[in-house]
Specification:
Order of helices and strands: EEEHEHHEHEEEEHEHH
Shape: globular
Largest sheet: 6 strands, mixed
Mean pLDDT: 93
CATH topology of the largest domain: Spore Coat Polysaccharide Biosynthesis Protein SpsA, Chain A
CATH class of the largest domain: Alpha Beta
Strand content: 15-25%
Radius of gyration: 19 Å
CATH architecture of the largest domain: Alpha-Beta Complex
């Protein structure tokens, strides 16, 4: 029997836009260390497990307190959805260790500013509801998606939400975007659906800071700057 949920941190070694992204330096520590430490400090998890196909990432992860009971054998390519990688990790975990948790939290290592309190609050939100799947999200702020447009070859715009252009921005409803920071699911439901975007999934809001994803060198530079800025600014 597993006492509590487990955390799985998917961290393949073959990132292309930022080579070795999961262990690149982020404010003095490997990027993945921030997520490992947040998960451990939350005090929620029976185990914090890094799922990787890379020996160096495995060694770095263990040095910061994560368990790496195996090297990933499936879903380590560019095309596999991250949900598939987590399901594959759950399968391998059961095979190698016998652990079969009821709930799993998937924590992406490229969201280093999500902290232990964010994880605790997401778990409380999940437990308080009836949904089997919960994804973290944040509210759009700096750019208003209602004013989004496409351009043809000559530069002529087509508004995606033409009616919204007639309204003041403060009169439009809030729009939210999923972020990979904290995804939670009941394991049996996740296996059946094959994705965290399972039937009836709900969103749990994070601050824009906690929700930041790093995918490109430009993202990395921006989030490093945010990390160096006091939270109350």
């Amino acid at each position: 029997m597993v006492d509590g949920p487990i955390a799985i941190i998917p961290a393949r070694g073959g990132s292309k836009r930022i080579p070795r992204k999961n262990i690149v330096d982020f404010c003095g520590k490997p990027m993945i260390a921030w997520t490992i430490e947040a998960a451990i400090q939350s005090g929620l998890f029976h185990q914090v497990i890094v799922s990787t196909d890379d020996v160096e990432i495995a060694e770095v992860s263990r040095s910061y307190g994560a368990a790496v009971p195996f090297l990933r054998q499936a879903a380590a390519d560019d095309e596999s959805p991250v949900s598939k990688a987590t399901i594959a990790a759950l399968d391998q975990l059961a095979e190698v260790t016998g652990l079969r948790p009821d709930h799993v939290a998937q924590l992406m290592p490229n969201c280093p500013l999500r902290d232990a309190t964010d994880i605790q609050e997401a778990w409380v939100h999940f437990q308080a509801g009836a949904a089997l799947f919960q994804l973290s999200c944040f509210q759009y702020a700096m750019a208003n998606p209602y004013w989004a447009m496409t351009l043809d070859a000559a530069g002529h715009p087509t508004a995606l939400f033409p009616d919204a252009l007639k309204q003041r921005s403060q009169d439009l409803p809030a729009i939210y975007c999923p972020t990979g920071a904290i995804w939670i699911a009941e394991v049996a439901a996740l296996r059946m659906a094959g994705t965290f975007y399972g039937p009836g999934h709900v969103l749990s809001e994070l601050s824009w800071r906690a929700a930041l994803d790093i995918d490109t060198p430009e993202d990395l530079a921006i989030v490093r700057s945010v990390a160096a800025t006091p939270r109350d600014i």
